Structure formats: structure tokens, C-alpha cells
């Protein structure tokens, strides 16, 4: 009799567990069917994996309770879904959103499968490699940390950008640029720089401003390609082989010309103004000797001016 009662209990327990599992499976299936899945998402194991096609080791996912966690690319859960929202910044950094709490930058601790809140930092800027990243602190300054904690480059920069295989860092409150290599070693520059702006991503060209306020062109290997003697160097919108340049005369007035991507002057720097037309593509508005004309860019280059 006692054996019969025990077997009956086991059967009832088995039925309950089976029912719960069935309900859970049905809930996951219904969620997968009803979920608002974007074209960049996919569903694995009943979870909506966000931005699935993006490169990276880890993904954010949303479960049936509309909570967010982190999984690997195969849908294996790394961090359970407990957040109201998660935005991926890099493989190891995320912005967490939760009701009645301020947004927070968090670091993914893979070993312990958890997210660590980083109260001293407010956002992620760029990944350098692996678990080494540029982040932004509470004073809006950028620096470099490893594994969410170890500071490798101090937080004293208003910007840090990768150009080629170098990192150009502009110091906060100073007209000074530091350049770091892939090993985060600071390069000794052959010239002082106040500013550096990417001119051509394809060729890794940079418009650089020296400590005297003159503009030239360098590459990411810090080789000077166009001398520091210009007031401005601006890429022409419709042909990346050319730049509109200007120099200041002794009286402070600018004169304009055109340089090609071999850094040769193809239109003399003798024009009062050279500007792209607001009304017509591939047209220039030029002024010389108080005469204003609208000219075709190609013809202007071939004739070396007007």
C-alpha cells in the first residue's frame, strides 16, 4: 500500500513538471512567433538575438519577459536576462537601462558570467583590441582601460581616434596632439601638432595643424606629404583626387587654389574664393580680380584655372 502511494506521488510530480515544461516551451514558442524581430535580428532557442549579423563574440538578447541578457553567437546564455534594456558598445562593454535607475556603463566579466557596473565611466568610445578600450569618464575625458579597470592611458584627452595603425589623442584644454602606436607607446613626433583631422580614410591622410597654426598633410606613419604652409585643406566632394586649399597673404586675406592627391598644385593659389556650388553638382563658384564665375570642375582642372 505504501509503495502504491509513493508511486502515485511520483506520477503526479512527473505530470506537474511535464505541464510546467510544456507551458514554458509554449511560452517561448509563442514569444518567438509574436516577437518584433528586426531584419538584423534572429531567433535562437526562443530568444531574440539582437543585431545577429554584426561581427563580435557576444550578442544581446531579449527573452519572453522582455528582459535583456547576453549570449554568444550560438544563442548560449552568458549573462541571464535581468535588464530592461542593453545596448552593445563592444564585445565587453554595454549600456544598461533599468527602471528607476540611471543608465550605466557595464563591463562583461566573462569568467564570472556577470555584468560589472563602472560608476567612474559614462560611455564607451572605441575598441583598440581584445579587452582594451577607449572609454569616457564622468568629466567627459577619454582614456584607455583594460578589462574594465586597469588604466593604460590616463583620462586627459577630449578625443582619441584611430587613423591607420596609430591613435591620435587630442589633449583636453590644450592645443596638443599625442600619437600612440598599437602597443600604446607614445610616438616622438617630428613636429608639434595642435590638431589632426582625417582627410581620407582610404589613404590614411590627415590634415594636421602645427604649433604655428599652419595646415599640412601627413599620413598615419607621420610622414609630411604637403608642407605646413596652408590655412585650410578641404577635400572636394565629387572627386577624392583633389583638395581645395587656401593660404593667407601678408595682409591676412586668404587666396585659394586646388591641389591633387599627389600634393601638386594644379590650380594656382591666386583666387579670392573657390567654393563648391550650392545649386549644381560638380560646379565651382570662383572669384578672381573681382570677377565671379560658375565653372565646371573638370574644365577648371584641365585649364588650370580660368
Low-confidence stretches: 10-34
The H-and-E topology, N to C, reads as HEEEEEEEEEEEEEEEEEEEEEEEEEEH
Rg computed from alpha carbons, rounded to a whole number of angstroms: 29 Å
Mean pLDDT, as a whole number?
87
What is the distance, rounded to the nearest whole angstrom, between the alpha carbons of the first and last residues?
111 Å
Helix content: 10-25%
Strand content: over 45%
User: How do the strands of the widest beta sheet line up side by side?
Assistant: 10-11-12-13-14-15
The total count of helices amounts to 2
Largest sheet: 6 strands, antiparallel
How many strand units?
A: 26
Form type: elongated
Which structural category fits the helices and strands? mainly beta
Concise summary:
With about 300 residues, the chain is mostly beta strands. Helix content is about 15%, strand content about 50%.
In words, what does this structure look like?
With 306 residues, the chain is mainly beta. It is built from two helices and 26 strands. The strands form six sheets. It has a six-stranded antiparallel beta sheet, with no helix packed on it. A five-stranded antiparallel beta sheet has the order 1-2-3-4-5. The longest helix is centred in the first third of the chain and has 33 residues, at 2-34. It starts with a helix and ends with a helix. Mean pLDDT is 87; it is low at 10-34.
Amino acid at each position: 500500500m505504501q509503495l502504491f502511494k509513493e508511486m502515485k506521488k511520483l506520477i503526479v510530480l512527473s505530470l506537474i513538471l511535464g505541464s510546467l515544461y510544456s507551458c514554458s516551451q509554449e511560452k517561448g514558442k509563442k514569444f518567438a512567433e509574436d516577437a518584433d524581430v528586426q531584419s538584423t535580428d534572429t531567433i535562437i532557442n526562443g530568444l531574440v538575438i539582437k543585431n545577429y549579423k554584426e561581427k563580435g563574440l557576444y550578442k544581446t538578447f531579449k527573452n519572453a519577459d522582455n528582459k535583456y541578457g547576453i549570449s554568444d553567437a550560438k544563442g548560449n546564455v552568458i549573462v541571464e536576462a535581468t535588464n530592461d534594456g542593453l545596448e552593445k558598445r563592444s564585445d565587453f562593454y554595454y549600456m544598461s537601462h533599468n527602471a528607476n535607475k540611471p543608465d550605466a556603463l557595464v563591463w562583461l566579466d566573462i569568467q564570472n558570467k556577470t555584468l560589472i557596473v563602472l560608476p567612474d565611466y559614462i560611455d564607451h568610445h572605441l575598441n583598440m583590441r581584445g579587452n582594451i578600450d577607449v572609454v569616457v569618464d564622468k568629466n567627459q575625458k577619454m582614456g584607455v582601460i583594460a578589462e574594465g579597470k586597469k588604466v593604460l592611458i590616463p583620462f586627459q584627452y577630449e578625443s582619441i581616434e584611430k587613423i591607420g595603425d596609430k591613435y591620435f589623442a587630442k589633449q583636453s584644454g590644450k592645443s596638443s596632439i599625442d600619437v600612440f602606436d598599437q602597443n600604446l607607446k607614445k610616438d616622438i613626433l617630428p613636429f608639434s601638432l595642435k590638431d589632426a583631422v582625417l582627410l581620407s580614410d582610404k589613404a590614411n591622410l590627415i590634415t594636421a595643424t602645427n604649433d604655428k597654426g599652419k595646415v599640412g598633410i601627413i599620413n598615419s606613419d607621420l610622414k609630411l606629404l604637403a608642407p605646413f604652409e596652408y590655412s585650410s585643406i578641404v577635400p572636394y566632394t565629387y572627386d577624392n583626387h583633389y583638395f581645395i586649399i587656401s593660404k593667407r597673404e601678408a595682409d591676412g586675406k586668404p587666396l585659394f587654389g586646388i591641389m591633387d592627391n599627389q600634393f601638386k598644385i594644379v590650380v594656382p593659389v591666386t583666387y579670392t574664393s573657390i567654393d563648391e556650388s550650392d545649386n549644381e553638382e560638380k560646379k565651382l563658384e570662383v572669384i578672381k580680380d573681382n570677377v565671379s564665375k560658375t565653372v565646371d570642375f573638370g574644365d577648371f582642372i584641365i585649364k588650370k584655372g580660368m
